[in-house]
Each structure stands twice: as structure tokens, then as C-alpha cells.
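Example (one chain per record):
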Amino acid sequence: MSNPYEAPKAQVGDSLRDDPGVEEVASGQKLVIYAILVYLAIILVRGGAGPIAGVLAIVSLVLSLMGILRISNGLGYGTGTKVLLVILMFVPLVGLITLLVLNAKATNRLREAGYQVGLLGARR
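Predicted structure:
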């Protein structure tokens, strides 16, 4: 027989906040946000200076690839999805749209985990 006055036994911790993938999503989201900002800077600089735009394009590509891989790992995406996202980064406008969609998914996941998401990323 069980005791009717015994407290219920349930997991009370926040499982999303304790998930190590959420931290990976947060760090990847910051990289993706910085990549988007650099991408927009390329659009502004492109008419004025050619070599600076080339350097900014490389920086944006590296930031976006690192961010995509971190967010994909944190969200539990498979290898095929990761490869598709990386390939999409090499198509000029489609890469920016991919970053924006992935950023939105990361924002939703982080808000579910209790993070506050601002313009430059998430914080607890």
C-alpha cells in the first residue's frame, strides 16, 4: 500500500535548460547573427572597396559555417540536413535566407529553454 500523504515523485527540474545542446545553440546563434551583420556590411561596402568586401565575405562565410554546424548539432539535425545547409551557404541570397530561418529556429528553441534572446544573441 502506498501512503496517501506522501508527496508526489516527479521530475521538477527544467530539462530544456539542463540540455547541453541548448548552450551549443546559443553559441551558434551568436555566430550566425554576427555572420548576418557582416553579410549586410558587405552589401554596403561592395560599391566602395573591392578588397575589403572580399575579406568580409570570407569572414562571413566562416562565421556562418561554424554557426550552422553548432546550431545543427544543438538542434539534433542529421548529417544530410547539415550538408544541405552548408551547400546553401554558397548560394548568395539563399545563404542569407538560410541564416535567417536557422536563426529563427534557434531563437524559438532558446526561448523555450528560458533564455532571453536579444539582437546580438541569447543570455540566461
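Caption: The chain has five helices and two strands.
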